[in-house]
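A sample copied in:

***
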Amino acid sequence: MGVSRSSPEKGISVVTVDYPPVNAVPVRGWFALAEAVRAAGRDPGIRCVVLAAEGRGFNAGVDIKEIQAAGHEALIGANQGCAEAFAAVYECETPVVAAVHGFCLGGGIGLVGNADAVVASEDATFGLPELDRGALGAATHLARLVPQHLMRTLYYTGRTASAAELHGHGSVWAVVPRAELPGAALELARQIAAKDGRLLRMAKSALNGIDPVDVRRSYRFEQGFTFEANLSGLADRVRDTFGRSGTEGV
């Protein structure tokens, strides 16, 4: 249980998240994930990192129960932890391949949207149910997976998109049966890791340098509205009514 690292092949590091039952990640887990990805990227022998998960789904976002129990302190910790984990994936010195199965929600979108490549199982679904949780965030990353208008519709409705839909938009490299996902992700990582290690690191820096959006700053801007919703009490009211705060307008 937790975050672990393994090296199934030379040049490849697999970072695995395992927080049963649904991979709703606690505050400490986001920071552990960030450190694991950064450590893998710093290793001169690693040329590609695979981000994977155990259990029913890839990621269910933050641990809402932890936030409800510990209040603003946990909210601040979760926001800081998510920001660090998402940034660690984006800033990892080597390419990161996300291997996604089952549900990929909330914080999971932040991780996958910042990855360099995505391989998904046929049962994978992607979405941001943030408005039902009294929160905002990770639209920055969903916008890297789907076109702008689709991103907005998914965000406002809380609906999910399938792996096949994302494959159609070009953001998922391959869709495979669930049993074949680990092998498919490793195969892509193997192809990447076959390149010269120093040149791969230069390529990662170059591609990040020409990105039109500063993903770290953009996400932190979004998080400000999550703080506002929580400080005003709106977030609690929305969560208590399963995403429906009534008809009072504001």
Notes: Residues 41 and 92 are 5 Å apart (CA to CA). Strands lie at 2-9, 12-18, 48-53, 96-100, 103-105, 117-121, 125-127, 160-162, 174-176. The chain is about 50% helix and 15% strand. Residues 246-250 have pLDDT under 50 and may be disordered.
